[in-house]
Amino acid sequence: MSHSPSPEHIREQLDHITHSSAIGRSGNYKELLRYLVECELANIEQGSSSNTPKEFDIASSIFPKKQGYAPGEDSSVRVYVSNLRKKLKDYYSSLNTAPPFCIEIPKGGYRVVFAAPPAKANTKEHSKPRMPLSYALAALLLISIAINGIQWFTDHKQAEPALESALQSHPLWARFNQNDKPVLLVMGDLYIFSEFDPLLKRYRTIRDVSINSPQDYNDFITQHPERLKGLKENRANFVTKANVLVTRMLIPALATDKETTFKLQSQLTASDLRDFNIIFVGLFKALGPLNNYLNGSNFTLNDSRYLIRHKQSDAQYPVKGNFQQQFTDYGLFASFQSPGGNHIMIISGFSDTSIIQIGKTLTSEHGLNTLRQAAQHSNTSLEAGFEALFEVSGYDRTALSGDVLLTLPVNEQAIWAKPE
After folding, report:
1. Is the dihedral of CA 199, 200, 201, 202 positive or negative?
2. Using CA atoms, how far apart are residues 7 and 37, in angstroms rounded to an integer?
3. CB-based contacts of 278: which residues, under 8 Å, 6+ apart?
4. What is the DSSP pairing of strand 193-197 with strand 231-233?
């Protein structure tokens, strides 16, 4: 049965749906739903059905990379709309109270309808709200880190109060401790998705090194539409050992009265970059929105992300060996300011080994002295925006030794430059 809510109420509910966990992190599903709703709103305004999109219209508007889309040969639009119907059903099933109306896409077409909720709606009025799996896992992770971090912080403070004082007053850390803005410790979580195994008849969690964001996932589906039926987004979050260990290492460097919170990179927002001093810990592949740092860096990462190249000299630093045996890894440490005056620190590398070694360097007097000497050798100021290239020797993913190869100023203007 159709319903006649106002355009304002329709767009308000649309906004709630696109920001819900039921839709997931895929931008394509959000854009697809917005597009179909706006088409129907145009129909209502004009009192016609001329704006109802056809399959080709959807492909051209939502999947612009699909040039020469042929509905008879490519089923990706039909599969996306079918999945969107399921996501809408999941959304309304998760609500604790019945909504004033439901956004539906009846089978057999692409026209949206605004229907009154059924008399016995799929609500959960007598059950407690369920926390989405991704939030639950993230909460458990953060609680674990916080508890272990606080315990380690207490023990460390009793054992080495002089070291804590030295760390907190060091120029690298003083800029965080003496700044009015709170600190946000960002852990670089890796993107994962689920794939149906027809032999096991169940979904398996997949970590693909070439798919590191919802956009990468959408691009993969666009290039391989035949795979869409067997894949689905996974709302869980995956972090590595370095995220936990280095985050715990950094706590003593922050003043005890400094407001500090944790967040996953996949949940980072533009307002976070404005409102917090940020410390990122994670793999290069998990930089997410902080990937803009590389625009002002002296280095580039190759497509496989296992080689660092110095832009000016073209010197290359490839990872060598086997991570399960003896190997040489590389990582980057960067410290710079945003246009809003908040400080950003990045601790990143190809593997956990380089990230942990950088963490050790930044939280020991010997390591900070080594960094200072390297900066003096290259006439680089630690008071301004700069970065350091680390080379780490390891065995079986354990760091044996580390060296600061280069320290260079970063181009802060290029980091924050608007795309042309």
Report:
1. negative
2. 10
3. 183, 184, 186, 272, 290, 342, 343, 344, 345
4. antiparallel
Number of domains in the chain: 3
Give Cα separations from 178 to 148, 182, 354 (angstroms): 25, 10, 28
pLDDT per position as a tens digit, 293-350: 999 999 999 856 689 999 999 999 999 887 677 889 999 999 999 888 889 999 999 9
Tell me: do 149 and 258 sit in the same domain.
yes
- Of the three residues 80, 115, 150, the one that is the final residue of a domain is 115
Q: How far is C-alpha 192 from the chain's CA centre?
A: 11
Q: How far is CA 33 from CA 19, 26, 108, 116, 267, in A?
A: 12, 11, 16, 18, 22
Sign of the torsion angle spanned by Cα atoms 107, 108, 114, 116: negative
- Its pTM stands at 0.65
Query: Which residue range is the domain that position 303 belongs to?
Result: 133-189+239-415
177 shares a domain with 145? yes
Whether 148 and 256 map to the same domain: the answer is yes
Domain identity same for 149 and 273: yes
* Inter-residue contact 310 to 406 (CB < 8 Å): yes
